[in-house]
Amino acid sequence: MTARPEAALAVLRAALAQERQITTDLRNELDTVRIALAIEQELAATLRGERDLWAGRAQVLASAMSREASAVAEDAPAAAGRAEVAVRAIA
Fold it and tell me: pLDDT band at residue 73, thresholds of 50, 70 and 90?
C-alpha cells in the first residue's frame, strides 16, 4: 500500500496549520501575561512611592517626638525645683 503524495501533503499542511494556531495562541497568551506584568510592576512602583512617603513622614514624626521628649527631660529638673520652691512657700 503506497501513500499518495497528495494525501501526505494534505496531512502535513493540516499539521502545519495546527502548529501555527498553537503558536498564535501561545503568543496571544504571552502578550496577555506581559501586559499583566507591566500593570503589576507599575502598581508596585506606585506602592513603593507611597511607602517611601509614609516612611519619611514617620521619620519626621519620630524626630519631632524625640526632640519633644528631650526638651521635657531637660526641663524636668527645673520644673521639679520650681515645684519644691512652691511647696516650701505654701508650708
Answer: confident
